[in-house]
Amino acid sequence: MSLDIPWLAQLLGLLACAIGATAFLQRQDTKLRLHLTLNGALLTLHFMMLGSTAAAINCLLCAVRTWVSGYHRTTAIMLLFIALAWGLVLPQLEHPIQLLTLIGTTLSTYALFRLEGLSLRWCMLASSLCWVIHNIWAGSIGGILLEGMFLVINGYTICSLYRSRGVAPSQPDGVR
Asked: pTM of the full predicted structure?
């Protein structure tokens, strides 16, 4: 039985979802970055096949950015990735809701380059909210499941990290 492109696109999205589901369970930032890099690469293919060029470009940049942020966390490189995202994606936008992908990408880029620990995860939570709204609009089944899981799992890990440190949720943590 051969799969047509929409089904293959959704299968790639679901595979990305499965890989990404464990990302925010990671307590080590390096493992979090590895899972998110693989997730971004698969979502790039997924959104290309769905015809959502803006989301595909963002996911590709996110995959590369996440990998690079594990080795080089300078402000200049962070700003380069933010500029690339806005410069490459903005001209591809066909609907105002697609702007959420840029906002989410900007938030997660800032988080990966400038934040650590709980602050990193809070900023990534805000990014996931942007993406889940976009994915509902785009009809990305895997993307909806993935970002929905990111919200729940990341929220759970945030609470777990607070409990393990005995830190009240209102205390800042990890800003560089």
From this structure: 0.78
